[in-house]
Amino acid sequence: xxxxxxxxxxxxxxxxxxxxxxxxxxxxxxxxxxxxxxxxxxxxxxxxxxxxxxxxxxxxxxxxxxxxxxxxxxxxxxxxxxxxxxxxxxxxxxxxxxxxxxxxxxxxxxxxxxxxxxxxxxxxxxxxxxxxxxxxxxxxxxxxxxxxxxxxxxxxxxxxxxxxxxxxxxxxxxxxxxxxxxxxxxxxxxxxxxxxxxxxxxxxxxxxxxxxxxxxxxxxxxxxxxxxxxxxxxxxxxxxxxxxxxxxxxxxxxxxxxxxxxxxxxxxxx
Length: 270
Prior knowledge:
single chain, 8-stranded mixed beta sheet
Protein backbone atom coordinates (compact mmCIF):
# COMPACT_ATOMS: atom_id res chain seq x y z
CA UNK A 1 0.00 0.00 0.00
CA UNK A 2 1.34 3.44 -0.88
CA UNK A 3 1.90 5.72 2.07
CA UNK A 4 0.92 8.82 0.12
CA UNK A 5 -2.19 10.39 1.56
CA UNK A 6 -4.56 12.76 -0.19
CA UNK A 7 -7.35 14.89 1.21
CA UNK A 8 -10.23 15.47 -1.20
CA UNK A 9 -12.80 18.23 -0.71
CA UNK A 10 -16.04 17.93 -2.69
CA UNK A 11 -17.77 21.27 -3.09
CA UNK A 12 -21.35 21.82 -2.03
CA UNK A 13 -22.47 23.90 -5.01
CA UNK A 14 -25.31 23.01 -7.36
CA UNK A 15 -24.56 20.69 -10.25
CA UNK A 16 -22.09 18.44 -8.44
CA UNK A 17 -23.08 14.79 -8.46
CA UNK A 18 -21.93 12.18 -5.97
CA UNK A 19 -22.00 9.09 -8.19
CA UNK A 20 -18.94 9.77 -10.35
CA UNK A 21 -16.95 10.81 -7.29
CA UNK A 22 -17.85 7.61 -5.44
CA UNK A 23 -17.03 5.48 -8.50
CA UNK A 24 -13.62 7.14 -8.64
CA UNK A 25 -12.96 6.76 -4.91
CA UNK A 26 -13.84 3.06 -5.16
CA UNK A 27 -11.28 2.60 -7.95
CA UNK A 28 -8.65 4.51 -6.00
CA UNK A 29 -9.25 2.29 -2.99
CA UNK A 30 -8.86 -0.80 -5.18
CA UNK A 31 -5.51 0.72 -6.18
CA UNK A 32 -4.68 0.97 -2.44
CA UNK A 33 -4.74 4.76 -2.34
CA UNK A 34 -5.35 6.35 1.07
CA UNK A 35 -7.65 9.34 1.30
CA UNK A 36 -9.84 11.47 3.51
CA UNK A 37 -13.00 12.93 1.97
CA UNK A 38 -14.39 16.30 3.09
CA UNK A 39 -17.66 17.61 1.68
CA UNK A 40 -19.52 20.89 1.58
CA UNK A 41 -23.23 21.59 1.85
CA UNK A 42 -24.02 25.07 0.55
CA UNK A 43 -26.67 24.22 -2.02
CA UNK A 44 -28.39 21.63 0.20
CA UNK A 45 -28.42 24.12 3.08
CA UNK A 46 -29.96 26.81 0.88
CA UNK A 47 -32.75 24.48 -0.26
CA UNK A 48 -33.51 23.21 3.21
CA UNK A 49 -33.45 26.71 4.68
CA UNK A 50 -36.04 27.84 2.13
CA UNK A 51 -38.24 24.85 2.89
CA UNK A 52 -38.06 25.55 6.63
CA UNK A 53 -38.87 29.24 6.23
CA UNK A 54 -35.47 30.51 7.30
CA UNK A 55 -33.74 31.44 4.01
CA UNK A 56 -29.96 31.78 3.88
CA UNK A 57 -28.38 35.20 4.03
CA UNK A 58 -24.92 35.97 2.67
CA UNK A 59 -22.59 38.87 3.38
CA UNK A 60 -19.21 40.07 2.12
CA UNK A 61 -16.43 40.62 4.62
CA UNK A 62 -14.17 43.66 4.46
CA UNK A 63 -11.50 41.34 3.00
CA UNK A 64 -13.83 40.48 0.10
CA UNK A 65 -14.87 36.95 1.12
CA UNK A 66 -18.53 35.94 0.85
CA UNK A 67 -19.92 33.88 3.72
CA UNK A 68 -23.19 32.65 5.17
CA UNK A 69 -24.60 34.49 8.18
CA UNK A 70 -24.97 31.68 10.70
CA UNK A 71 -27.38 32.43 13.51
CA UNK A 72 -28.29 29.50 15.75
CA UNK A 73 -31.24 28.39 13.59
CA UNK A 74 -29.09 28.52 10.45
CA UNK A 75 -26.45 26.44 12.22
CA UNK A 76 -29.06 23.79 13.02
CA UNK A 77 -30.20 23.75 9.38
CA UNK A 78 -26.59 23.51 8.23
CA UNK A 79 -26.07 20.52 10.54
CA UNK A 80 -29.17 18.81 9.11
CA UNK A 81 -28.16 19.47 5.51
CA UNK A 82 -24.57 18.32 5.88
CA UNK A 83 -25.64 15.23 7.84
CA UNK A 84 -27.89 14.21 4.93
CA UNK A 85 -25.04 14.65 2.43
CA UNK A 86 -22.67 12.74 4.71
CA UNK A 87 -25.06 9.79 4.97
CA UNK A 88 -25.61 9.72 1.21
CA UNK A 89 -21.86 9.69 0.55
CA UNK A 90 -21.24 6.91 3.06
CA UNK A 91 -24.15 4.89 1.63
CA UNK A 92 -22.89 5.20 -1.93
CA UNK A 93 -19.31 4.39 -0.97
CA UNK A 94 -20.40 1.35 1.02
CA UNK A 95 -22.44 0.16 -1.96
CA UNK A 96 -19.21 0.25 -3.97
CA UNK A 97 -17.26 -1.75 -1.43
CA UNK A 98 -15.54 1.20 0.24
CA UNK A 99 -15.59 0.93 4.03
CA UNK A 100 -16.34 4.59 4.70
CA UNK A 101 -17.11 6.10 8.10
CA UNK A 102 -19.09 9.34 8.34
CA UNK A 103 -18.16 12.05 10.83
CA UNK A 104 -18.45 15.75 11.36
CA UNK A 105 -15.67 17.87 12.77
CA UNK A 106 -17.62 17.85 16.04
CA UNK A 107 -17.12 14.14 16.58
CA UNK A 108 -14.10 13.41 18.73
CA UNK A 109 -13.06 17.05 18.30
CA UNK A 110 -11.82 16.13 14.84
CA UNK A 111 -11.70 19.79 13.78
CA UNK A 112 -11.06 22.32 16.52
CA UNK A 113 -11.90 25.88 15.62
CA UNK A 114 -11.99 29.41 16.94
CA UNK A 115 -15.40 31.03 17.00
CA UNK A 116 -15.71 34.38 15.25
CA UNK A 117 -17.33 36.47 17.96
CA UNK A 118 -17.99 39.32 15.56
CA UNK A 119 -17.81 39.66 11.79
CA UNK A 120 -17.12 42.98 10.08
CA UNK A 121 -18.98 43.13 6.76
CA UNK A 122 -19.91 45.53 3.98
CA UNK A 123 -23.64 46.03 3.37
CA UNK A 124 -25.07 48.70 1.10
CA UNK A 125 -21.65 50.25 0.85
CA UNK A 126 -21.24 50.65 4.61
CA UNK A 127 -19.36 48.68 7.24
CA UNK A 128 -21.27 46.97 10.02
CA UNK A 129 -20.57 44.33 12.66
CA UNK A 130 -22.56 41.09 12.93
CA UNK A 131 -22.53 39.41 16.33
CA UNK A 132 -24.04 36.16 17.63
CA UNK A 133 -22.67 34.29 14.61
CA UNK A 134 -21.84 30.59 14.80
CA UNK A 135 -19.01 30.36 12.30
CA UNK A 136 -15.45 29.40 13.06
CA UNK A 137 -11.91 29.38 11.76
CA UNK A 138 -10.43 25.84 11.74
CA UNK A 139 -7.15 25.74 13.64
CA UNK A 140 -6.12 22.15 14.36
CA UNK A 141 -7.34 18.57 14.12
CA UNK A 142 -7.46 15.39 16.15
CA UNK A 143 -4.84 13.73 13.95
CA UNK A 144 -4.66 10.68 16.21
CA UNK A 145 -8.31 9.79 15.64
CA UNK A 146 -8.13 10.23 11.86
CA UNK A 147 -4.86 8.30 11.67
CA UNK A 148 -6.43 5.44 13.64
CA UNK A 149 -9.31 5.27 11.17
CA UNK A 150 -6.91 5.31 8.21
CA UNK A 151 -4.78 2.59 9.82
CA UNK A 152 -7.95 0.49 10.08
CA UNK A 153 -8.26 0.86 6.27
CA UNK A 154 -11.35 3.07 6.60
CA UNK A 155 -12.17 6.16 4.54
CA UNK A 156 -13.18 9.06 6.80
CA UNK A 157 -15.95 11.23 5.30
CA UNK A 158 -16.14 14.57 7.08
CA UNK A 159 -18.84 17.24 7.23
CA UNK A 160 -17.56 20.83 7.64
CA UNK A 161 -18.46 21.43 11.27
CA UNK A 162 -15.99 22.29 13.99
CA UNK A 163 -15.96 22.55 17.74
CA UNK A 164 -14.79 25.50 19.82
CA UNK A 165 -12.66 25.30 22.95
CA UNK A 166 -15.85 25.62 25.01
CA UNK A 167 -17.66 22.87 23.08
CA UNK A 168 -19.77 24.98 20.71
CA UNK A 169 -20.69 23.63 17.28
CA UNK A 170 -19.43 25.89 14.49
CA UNK A 171 -20.08 26.23 10.77
CA UNK A 172 -16.75 25.96 8.94
CA UNK A 173 -15.70 26.79 5.42
CA UNK A 174 -15.13 23.37 3.87
CA UNK A 175 -12.06 24.37 1.84
CA UNK A 176 -10.25 25.79 4.86
CA UNK A 177 -11.29 22.78 6.95
CA UNK A 178 -9.83 20.47 4.29
CA UNK A 179 -6.63 22.52 4.29
CA UNK A 180 -6.24 22.13 8.06
CA UNK A 181 -6.89 18.38 7.79
CA UNK A 182 -4.34 17.99 4.99
CA UNK A 183 -1.76 19.90 6.99
CA UNK A 184 -2.47 18.04 10.24
CA UNK A 185 -2.18 14.64 8.54
CA UNK A 186 0.89 15.69 6.54
CA UNK A 187 -0.89 14.82 3.30
CA UNK A 188 1.02 15.04 0.05
CA UNK A 189 -1.91 16.43 -1.94
CA UNK A 190 -5.05 18.45 -1.29
CA UNK A 191 -7.67 18.28 -4.03
CA UNK A 192 -10.46 20.88 -4.05
CA UNK A 193 -13.26 19.82 -6.41
CA UNK A 194 -15.79 22.37 -7.61
CA UNK A 195 -18.24 23.03 -10.48
CA UNK A 196 -15.76 24.78 -12.78
CA UNK A 197 -12.51 23.49 -14.38
CA UNK A 198 -10.33 25.37 -11.87
CA UNK A 199 -9.25 28.97 -11.36
CA UNK A 200 -10.31 30.98 -14.39
CA UNK A 201 -8.43 34.05 -15.59
CA UNK A 202 -11.63 35.49 -17.09
CA UNK A 203 -14.57 34.12 -15.10
CA UNK A 204 -16.94 32.59 -16.28
CA UNK A 205 -15.01 31.79 -19.49
CA UNK A 206 -14.08 28.14 -18.89
CA UNK A 207 -11.47 28.26 -21.67
CA UNK A 208 -9.42 30.71 -19.58
CA UNK A 209 -8.24 28.05 -17.11
CA UNK A 210 -5.03 28.82 -15.27
CA UNK A 211 -3.19 25.49 -15.40
CA UNK A 212 -0.36 26.11 -12.95
CA UNK A 213 0.48 28.54 -10.15
CA UNK A 214 3.92 28.42 -8.50
CA UNK A 215 3.59 28.33 -4.73
CA UNK A 216 5.25 31.69 -4.26
CA UNK A 217 2.86 33.43 -6.66
CA UNK A 218 -0.53 32.58 -5.15
CA UNK A 219 -1.12 36.15 -3.99
CA UNK A 220 -0.72 37.56 -7.49
CA UNK A 221 -3.20 35.05 -8.93
CA UNK A 222 -5.78 35.59 -6.18
CA UNK A 223 -7.07 38.61 -8.12
CA UNK A 224 -8.71 36.21 -10.60
CA UNK A 225 -10.74 34.39 -7.92
CA UNK A 226 -14.45 35.25 -7.97
CA UNK A 227 -17.03 34.41 -5.29
CA UNK A 228 -16.50 31.05 -3.60
CA UNK A 229 -13.24 30.54 -5.50
CA UNK A 230 -11.65 33.08 -3.14
CA UNK A 231 -11.98 30.64 -0.25
CA UNK A 232 -10.45 27.84 -2.33
CA UNK A 233 -7.40 29.94 -3.14
CA UNK A 234 -7.15 30.95 0.52
CA UNK A 235 -7.39 27.31 1.62
CA UNK A 236 -4.75 26.33 -0.94
CA UNK A 237 -2.36 28.97 0.37
CA UNK A 238 -2.90 27.88 3.97
CA UNK A 239 -2.29 24.22 3.12
CA UNK A 240 0.91 24.92 1.22
CA UNK A 241 2.27 27.15 3.98
CA UNK A 242 1.63 24.29 6.43
CA UNK A 243 3.66 21.80 4.39
CA UNK A 244 1.23 20.20 1.90
CA UNK A 245 3.24 19.60 -1.27
CA UNK A 246 0.62 20.53 -3.85
CA UNK A 247 -2.99 21.61 -4.18
CA UNK A 248 -5.19 20.97 -7.21
CA UNK A 249 -8.44 22.84 -7.86
CA UNK A 250 -10.33 20.49 -10.16
CA UNK A 251 -13.66 19.90 -11.85
CA UNK A 252 -16.06 17.62 -9.94
CA UNK A 253 -18.37 17.28 -12.94
CA UNK A 254 -16.06 15.17 -15.09
CA UNK A 255 -15.65 11.37 -14.99
CA UNK A 256 -13.12 10.20 -12.38
CA UNK A 257 -12.69 13.72 -10.95
CA UNK A 258 -10.16 12.81 -8.26
CA UNK A 259 -7.98 10.80 -10.63
CA UNK A 260 -8.14 13.62 -13.19
CA UNK A 261 -7.02 16.15 -10.58
CA UNK A 262 -4.18 13.83 -9.51
CA UNK A 263 -3.08 13.77 -13.16
CA UNK A 264 -2.92 17.56 -13.16
CA UNK A 265 -6.25 18.41 -14.77
CA UNK A 266 -7.35 21.69 -13.22
CA UNK A 267 -5.30 24.39 -11.54
CA UNK A 268 -2.18 22.89 -9.95
CA UNK A 269 -0.66 25.02 -7.20
CA UNK A 270 2.78 24.28 -5.82
